[in-house]
Design a protein that fits this description.
78 residues; alpha+beta; 2 domains; 3 strands; 13% strand
Length: 78
């Protein structure tokens, strides 16, 4: 019986140590992460246009300098 009780003690130590590790990982997952703002890059394609940008049916001549983007067949410039 003494050997069986020694095994139980060893198992309870293993459970305690593993549960503390799980607790630390759970805590790390709960940390709040700030949402990053989307930065539009000139010449890239996007699904929707940014608010308050101007619509152009064809590509403006100085589109790179102005930082224009495309959304479908339409060009948008700030």
């Amino acid at each position: 019986m003494s050997s069986a009780s020694a095994m139980n003690v060893a198992k309870s130590d293993a459970i305690t140590s593993s549960s503390s590790v799980v607790h630390k990982t759970d805590y790390a997952k709960r940390k709040y992460r700030h949402k990053r703002r989307q930065h539009y890059q000139a010449g890239h394609r996007y699904n929707k246009a940014p608010s308050n940008w101007h619509r152009h049916h064809k590509r403006p001549g100085d589109w790179q300098r102005r930082g224009c983007i495309t959304v479908g067949p339409v060009w948008w410039c700030p």
